[in-house]
Amino acid sequence: MTQRAVDSSGQQKPRRPRPAPIDAGSELDPVHPMKLPDSAVRGTGLTAAEVAERIARGEVNDVPVRSSRSIGEIVRANVFTRFNLIIGVLWLVMLFVAPFQDSLFGYVIIANTGIGIVQEWRAKKTLDGLAVIGEAKPTVRRDGVAAEISTSEIVLGDLVELGPGDKVVVDGAVAEADNLEIDESLLTGEADPVVKQPGDPVMSGSFVVAGGGAFSATKVGREAYAAQLAEEASRFTLVQSELRSGISTILKYVTWMMVPTAIGLIISQLVVKKSDLKDSIARTVGGIVPMIPEGLVLLTSVAFAIGVVRLGRKQCLVQELPAIEGLARVDVVCLDKTGTLTEGGMDVTEVRALGGADDPYIRQVLANLGASDPRPNASLQAIIDAYPSPNGEAWRCTEALPFSSARKYSGAAFDEGSGKASSWLLGAPDVLLPDHDPALGEIEQLNRQGLRVLLLARAQGELEGPQSAAGAEPAALVVLEQRLRPDAGQTLRYFADQRVATKVISGDNAVSVGAVAGKLGLPGAEHTLDARRLPTDPDDMATAMEENTVFGRVTPQQKREMVAALQSRGHTVAMTGDGVNDVLALKDADIGVSMGSGSEATRAVAQIVLLNNSFATLPSVVAEGRRVIGNITRVATLFLTKTVYSVLLAILVVCFQVEYPFLPRHLTLLSTLTIGVPAFFLALAPNKERARPHFVRRVMRYSVPSGVIAGIATFATYLIARHYYTGPGALDAETSAATLTLFLVSMWVLAIIARPYTWWRILLVAAMGAAFLIVLVVPWLQGFFALKLVGTVMPWAAVGIAVVAATALEFTWRLVSRRFPV
Predict the structure, then answer these.
(1) Cα 46–47–49 angle (5° rounding)?
(2) CB under 8 Å to 601, separation ≥6 — which residues?
(3) What are phi and psi of 99, to 5 degrees?
(4) Which residues does the annotation mark as catalytic?
(5) Rounded CA gap, 322 and 303, in Å?
(6) What is the spatial distance between Cα 657 and Cα 300, in angstroms, rounded to a whole number?
(7) Which among 5, 265, 506, 531 counts the fewest CB atoms within 10 Å?
(8) Which residues share a beta bridge with 408?
(9) Which residues partner with 210 through β-bridges?
(10) Which phi and psi angles does 46 have, rounded to 5°?
(11) Distance CA 226, CA 148 (A)
């Protein structure tokens, strides 16, 4: 029978009008029933011949939804960039006017772009493979036989079965309905489930919250409503990422500074100084190229791509790449107990008869209740396992009320034979019993032991309507023991160590949930609160959320409100879950995490899906996000320090009307040793530091003063060298002295960023210093890079200036750290 909404007078309430979906079309009219095809009416579905005929006509749900960018898009995105264009033009110029070694920067760009393409291609393969693993398999009835098929195999007119948690994968019309309730909130914005009757339309993207049934597919492929959204939503994307948007902002400012500085440098070198044409062009290009922090964009893409590959190997599907960054910023994790802290299965440990009820009769009732539900939840499945269907003639089920997370109970009415009938309810005792019932004390004791208790009660009236539980007579307590996840305790300890607050939000009894959390060692598990006593004021609710750890009897709408309350206090909230009742909260949380075995609806709205159903994978996701964000923040300072001192040197050269001190080969060497190679290793290093907001502001606080100090120290050495050296070869000697100062100051910036030191970080810094020393002492490398220190006075002066600059760097960094503490 179909459950309808009724008001307090018992009269059926009219349906609340709902906004029609975009492009829904007249055949999906929300009020008038649709005419069902013969295949749906007869209930057997399409025949094999009908399926073949529709496939031949192209009436199949073959939507090429991609989980990542195509190979062509990857190549174009990595090759055709604004900075590659600028550097490519400068590289071509250098190939014609300067020696090979002054064109090395161009080959580095080719290598880096190739690395970006390969890494993203590997990430694409991982994403595509995992998306296939996590794909839903709807149940379709054909020739009277139900079987799971891929969503891409559904054809027009197919009869698709529905149960709690199932997602409606194509548009259609309801053919069968057994208390079928559909949540269309993801499409219409309405949180209340909609009761569906045969002939009513269903839209792809909605999902079942209660009951069951079947619908006939009326729109498939690109015509389906959700298909218009899915193809765009599932692409490989980095939108809404503070890291990427911050880097884009930095690059925009760099471009604005670079253009006038480069023009001034060109005029200074070619017009004012009237130096040798080829040498002037080479030094002008040498001043322009280092202004572009092109490696920062590449390194960010590579770091994200490697993160996706690493998580993919752990069976973690990242459906939206910003989730890696977002989870790194999380400071509150909201967990649903069932399926997260506990495994899906439960065991019946005891059945306690109440009020003198007969034990054999109670067991018979439980067996028939289990047999009456074709799609049992975990609790009912445990009862079915303990009390299988009777061998003799079963009672005839005359009415069924599937479990709903909103009402917290299910029910069924039976014809027991011999003219005897009965109606039963099975669900939460504190919902079915009045507040002062003596049985609640006994139930409280069981809950404190971490046991889950269901009440079996005889209903006094019809099952339909909001008053179905009124006056129910308790018959028995069904005591269930939940199976704890063996890795849950360790995961909770990880979050505690990382200063991430954990909130357990469950629809079960708060005391019982607190006992389970206490067994797993969750800090603050003793602070439990029944959500029915939560204040409705958002601010008061936020206070209650911060003061308590475990919440029970939480409705789906309350979960959503609790997430919003935490967000209102500035918290970044991650929500995990696997049930339909978690969908709204998953959708509104900053990061939604779903179990792979959870309902299709939760997997559809979550940004991260744990395909191995292991809660223990979550720390790996957090660690990966923190590694990416923390390390990119570190190395961004290296890249932008170079940009700042390059712009400053160009401005000083223009103002003092002198030759630019460096050739491209010098800055290629410096960039490789003080930025490129170290940044690659630092970006992949472990990093447990929680990501913090205001990326641009924090990076610029350090890179601007560092770049200014490096630029002034280098130019000071250059001016002193110009007065010290005279005659032929003086410019090369001046350049070598300035290069030494700039290298030493840049190495000190690297040494600061590499802290705290570990053996490999010390080795990395030392190796870069040793590489530069080799260039200075090997004659062939001296000639190749045009670096040769002349005399002893000026080289030691360059070292002394670098020491002063390093001291200024230390003072500046400590001052910034004190003024802007973490």
Answers:
(1) 120
(2) 165, 166, 167, 183, 207, 208, 580, 583
(3) -65, 165
(4) 336
(5) 12
(6) 38
(7) 5
(8) none
(9) 181
(10) -75, 155
(11) 20
